[in-house]
Structure formats: C-alpha cells, structure tokens
Amino acid sequence: MNILQINSSARSTGSESTRLADALVAKLSATAANVSVTRRDLAAQPHPVLDEAALQALFTPAEQRNAEQAARVALDDALIAQVQAADVIVIGSPMYNFGITVQLKSWFDAIARAGVTFKYTATGPVGLLTGKKVYVAVARGGMHRGAPSDTQLPHLKTFLAFLGLTDVQFVYAEGMGLGPDAVAKAQAQADAEINAVLV
After folding, report:
1. Which UniProt keywords are given for this protein, alphabetically ordered (predicted)?
2. From first to last of its 199 residues, what are the pLDDT tens digits of the chain?
3. Residue 135 labelled as part of a binding site
4. 9 belongs to an annotated ligand binding site
5. What domains can you pick out in the chain, each with its CATH number?
6. For an engineered disulfide with 139, which of 17, 23, 29, 192 has Cβ 3.0 to 4.6 Å away?
7. Is 15 marked as binding a ligand?
8. 97 a known binding residue?
C-alpha cells in the first residue's frame, strides 16, 4: 500500500492537522503489510503558486517549451506522479480565515490538469484519480462543523470529487484556539475519530 501524506500547515512544529495526519498514517501503517509512505510538507517544500509564467508553461506544447518552462511544468508533474502512485492519500488541512491554506491551494492547482487527473466530456468533467481512499485531518481554532462558516469542507469535497477522489473520510479537531481545556477535548475527540474510522 502506497500512502501519500500531505501536510499543508504553515507551521513547521505544533500543527494539530499535521499531528492528526501523522496519527492516521501511523495507524494505517500498523494495520497493513508492505506499506510505503511518501510525506510532503508544503511548508518545508512550498510549491510555487500558479502565476502567469506557470500558465504560459502549461499551455505551451511540450516540444516548444524553453528550459525554464519545462522545469516549471516538471514541478507539477512530480506532484501528479505522487498522487497517481498513491493508494491512500492523507491530507492535513488547517482552516485559515475560513478556508484552506495557500500551501494546499498551490498543491491543488498543481495536481489538477485536464487530460491527466480529470477530463472534459460532453456531459461534464470526469475525475481520473479513481480507486483511492482519502483521509483529511481538519483542524480549526473555532467551532465550525455543520455551520455556515465552514467554507473549508465544501471546497475540499468539491475539489477532491472533481478529480475522482470520492471515497473521503474527515477527522476533526475544533476549538484549538479556545484554551487548554478545549484543546485537550478536541484532541481526544479527534483521536477517537481516527480510531473509529480505522477500525
């Protein structure tokens, strides 16, 4: 089983979403044989944002790209290859200002490529990254689950489904900014959720 872990917190240490992603991967690794884990920390290894130069490189035919354009596209190619090779994807996703982090958005932009990870058809787009299990560890400072303020979850669900990733399980740690007691409660609940989804 090939596991791809994506940590998208801007924090190199002390990230709750990363702690939960680590816990998910550890439990997955303990319950399966022949496990290979690839970890990508988007804070330690930030992916460049999708800017005009990147768009020009992507829309230039491969045989016509200059060296700089080829190198830029190769960065995205490497991330796509990791996703394609994964059987299980574990994403640590903190909520920043009601949404996903810029680090995760850059990763999303890199792996969404027409004709490779999705395709357009007469009846609409079809995701090509099928047959994979996804776990998302969501961490929030406040309490947003099931509330109108939770714009993070719809974004994650919509994007993953767009690529064909429809078998998705979420684990939550909420109230991380509400004091020590709330943190302890959130961590205990999140750990219980991990145990429940990985029975």
Report:
1. Flavoprotein, FMN, NAD, Oxidoreductase
2. 999 999 999 987 889 999 999 999 999 999 888 999 999 999 999 999 999 999 999 999 999 999 999 999 999 999 999 999 999 999 999 999 999 999 999 999 999 999 999 999 999 999 999 999 999 999 988 778 888 888 999 999 999 999 999 999 999 888 777 888 888 887 888 888 888 877 6
3. no
4. yes
5. 2-197 (3.40.50.360)
6. 17
7. yes
8. yes
| 118 labelled ligand-binding | no
| Distance spanning both ends of the chain, measured CA to CA | 17
96 is in an annotated binding site: yes
Q: Is 149 annotated as belonging to a binding site?
A: no
